[in-house]
Specification:
One of its GO terms (molecular function) is aminopeptidase activity. The protein has helices spanning about 5-15, 35-45, 60-65, 70-85, 110-130, 140-145, 150-160, 165-180, 265-270, 300, 365-370; strands at about 25-30, 50-55, 90-95, 130-135, 185-190, 195-200, 205, 210-215, 215-220, 230, 235-240, 240-245, 250, 255-260, 280-285, 305-310, 330-335, 345, 350-355, 355. By secondary structure, the chain is an alpha+beta fold.
């Protein structure tokens, strides 16, 4: 018998997140060995009159492929999959790999080829810009381990987060989206962080379950050369299978001129992938009330209550500062008191302190009002 929470999640993904219409093609991209949610989604797409297509893959196989890949091979592989993505109206990705570090030992030159010639054209350029899409994880043993929870407790947490009333959250986001659209100067202050930049004229977008599950953020983007100062992130982050901690960036005229971490050499290899990787492509405030601590999974970590992320690399089309890169790396700073606290100012007005919104129009986004 199927878990009714899984059935509800499939209904939400198909009916709310990408709103499948009759005749639409939907690619269900399943990474890992779990199959039950994928089957639920196939059935829900069909109920809506859509046409489901399924891709299943395994990170350990991808590792072997990348270890032996050539540039010509990756370009040919990308040409096949790009044609498929161009035929899709919707995309749902379920990521359920057993080991988040499966790609950790793939050489940087091979990963750079994969990012540049496969992921960037297919996902950043085609899927993100031209399909209705949503990406989520699956609550397996590996994820529970990352969260330092039993599998059963993690499943309860996962379904609370993923089956949140996102329509209610969507309405509560409106004042923040409007305020960000009117804001010029942003200042972020935290331990090891004093950063200023402008978002004037860039716009803002709310995220309430249409692109990611879980969700809960409103994002904008700095004017490309406006970023000045230093930011120290306090959440670990996995990129290409490598875990980074204590990342610190110093900016001058928008560019990361100094970058350090527990793996400074590897960090700078990523930032040197292309010219745009040392500039910022997204600034966002996160506020999902059920997500409180990092678990080295960016779909969850970037939505942590009282957090923000400040993202090197590619800018989104909706809030575009012109930055282009094969990199888009959401790095998270949590400002709740137990993580050191901090403030966010919009045009010299304090709007969030220690992770809690302090102006009346934004109080609807505080945890007690979203649960």
């Amino acid at each position: 018998m199927r878990d009714p929470r899984m059935q509800k999640l499939a209904e939400n993904l198909v009916g709310y997140s990408i709103n499948v219409q009759p005749g639409e093609n939907v690619l269900i991209d399943m990474i890992g060995s779990e199959r039950e949610l994928a089957k639920c989604i196939v059935e829900e797409v069909a109920k809506k009159g859509g046409r489901p297509f399924v891709e299943t893959s395994d990170r350990s196989v991808l590792r072997s492929m990348l270890m032996n890949a050539t540039e010509e091979q990756i370009k040919l592989w990308a040409s096949f999959d790009l044609k498929r993505m161009e035929a899709m109206d919707g995309y749902i990705a379920i990521r359920a790999g057993e080991n988040i570090n499966s790609l950790a030992d793939v050489p940087s030159d091979k990963m750079n080829l994969y990012e540049k010639y496969y992921r960037h054209p297919i996902h950043s350029e085609q899927r993100v810009k031209h399909t209705k899409w949503v990406v989520l994880r699956y609550p397996n043993d590996s994820m529970a381990q990352l969260a330092n929870m039993s599998t059963e407790a993690f499943e309860d947490f996962y379904f609370n987060v993923c089956n949140l009333d996102y329509a209610k959250m969507d309405k509560a986001m409106d004042p923040l989206e409007e305020l960000m659209k009117k804001t010029d100067k942003v200042r972020i202050v935290s331990p090891g962080t004093d950063l200023t930049f402008s978002i004037k004229g860039i716009g803002a977008e709310k995220c309430s379950g249409q692109k990611n599950i879980p969700d809960g953020e409103v994002f904008s983007c700095p004017i490309r050369d406006s970023v000045q100062g230093t930011i120290t992130y306090n959440s670990p982050s996995v990129y290409s299978g490598v875990t980074f901690e204590n990342i610190k960036f110093t900016f001058k005229d928008g560019k990361i001129v100094e970058a350090t971490s527990n793996n400074t050499e590897k960090l700078n290899e990523i930032l040197d992938m292309d010219e745009g990787a040392r500039y910022i492509g997204e600034f966002s405030l996160g506020f999902n009330p059920y997500i409180l601590h990092p678990m080295k999974d960016i779909l969850f970590d970037e939505k942590i209550a009282g957090s923000l992320h400040f993202t090197p690399g590619q800018a989104y089309e909706e809030t575009d500062n012109g930055n282009r890169s094969a990199v888009h790396w959401d790095l998270v700073l949590i400002q709740r008191p137990e993580y050191g606290g901090g403030e966010v100012y919009f045009d010299d007005r304090l709007i969030r302190k220690d992770g809690h919104f302090v102006i009346p129009e934004l109080e609807g986004l505080n945890p007690e009002n979203l649960k």
